[in-house]
Amino acid sequence: MKKNLMLLMMMISIILNVVLVYKFFYQGEKVIIKKDSRSEIKMTKENREYVMAEMRGFLESVQKINDGIAKNDPNMVAGVGQQSGACKINTIPQGLVRSLPYEFKQMGFHTHELFDVMSKMAKQKYDRQEIQVKMNELLNNCVACHQTYKITAEP
Fold it and tell me: Which fold has domain 39-153?
């Protein structure tokens, strides 16, 4: 009788442990994601790919500027204007600008302009702190844009 009771208790313990391990390690909790409140910008797949590549280029430029500031190297900072400045505006695909909301265009053009300003500052009168202030302004544009908009491709 004692053996049967011990065997029963051990089986209950094993089953309980298996259930607990499943519940806490494998099943997890269901997470409810709040509805995305950003404005959706619909564009062609090609234009979306262009905008996404442009944003990746911005991020690479930000990294290079930060590296230039950290190394106190104005030449690194100055070179970024060629990569992400207003000169890139001439490469915009036809029809893209027309599909963008006015505020999005403002942020985009202002971002290109800030890259040019930082490049010019590095060439003319290099001041790490002043360039960092412009970098923060640029990053505020990035954050505002990503909080406000999402870009989807039209089917």
Answer: Four Helix Bundle (Hemerythrin (Met), subunit A) (1.20.120)
CB-based contact 69:80 (threshold 8 Å): no
Q: Where are the domains of the chain?
A: 1-32, 39-153
Nearest-angstrom CA–CA distance, 18 and 23:
9
In the predicted structure, residue 116 carries a pLDDT above the cut 90: yes
pTM of the model: 0.74
Of 51, 59, 64, 120, nearest to 91 by C-alpha is 51
- Of residues 23 and 33, more confidence is placed in 23
